[in-house]
Request: fold
Amino acid sequence: MTGSGGGSAASRPAPAADRGTLPEPEVRAMFDRIARVYDLINTVMTAGLHHQWRRRAADLANVGSGDRVLDVATGTGDLAIELASRVAPGGEVVGSDFSEEMLARARTKAAALTDSAAGRAGATLARREAPELRFEWGNALELPYEDGAFAASTVGFGARNFSDLDRGVAEMARVVKPGGRVVILEITTPQKPPLSTFFRLWFDRIVPVIGKLAGDSQAYDYLPNSVKRFPEPPGLAASMARAGLEDIRWILTAGGIIALHVGSKPAGPVVTSANGTRPR
Ligand SMILES: C[S@@+](CC[C@H](N)C(=O)[O-])C[C@H]1O[C@@H](n2cnc3c(N)ncnc32)[C@H](O)[C@@H]1O
Reply:
């Protein structure tokens, strides 16, 4: 059947959420809506393992005391908070996101952690040793930071939401200093049974039910489909290479459901002085 506004069920295009793509304003509105249940659902869906994966991502960023790090699409801030412990004392972590509701949760969580650290260690000591942890509004496709402003940039479970993956990865590479790392933590589709069978069952049947229980079926229809349309590890590595990164590698964990990619920005050209020696 053809006719105004439609087509048959067979010919009608699937809604954008079912294809795993949504226009940017809808992605933002969706995360604003689910911000209040996001942490709880994350914990239920991963049996709490997401903290472990974020720790591995923070390790791969290879940052230390005094470094400045950017966590893109930071959401409720868990990866940024994990990174903060690596850059103290004297460092800074900026968590950036375009959902104000997710950022509000991140700020509340960070403030609660600072208060409890102050309670344990004494306010003065905690303030001296704690790194700066800031959460700011920013679109990952147009990061409001200068070239080379950070020692590393990370993104956890955010890249698959970028409406233009290459552009988001290029932005993460741009804001990192020569020699700095870009780390991408993302869900990926396992290729081999039994995990591939479990994964299909989990994402196609269980996750949408969790979404309904959470009162947002669109969001939790979008999630499995956004994972399915996201490139497999070699495809994401190719996007990182197009962004000019080198030494790109990835680690698969959780039976192949989670991929951690890391690449480095090439160190700048070696500067030599007129007499051929390297300035110190
Ligand atoms: C699945 S959540 C991940 C949050 C967090 N990084 C974590 O590890 O749990 C995806 C986040 O990406 C953000 N996001 C998606 N596209 C974005 C964009 N273009 N710019 C900034 N944030 C974006 C959403 O607002 C949301 O907070």
Summary: Residues 1-13, 276-280 have pLDDT under 50 and may be disordered. Residues 24-46 form the longest helix (23 residues). The chain has one domain: 21-264. The domain at 21-264 is CATH 3.40.50.150 (Rossmann fold).
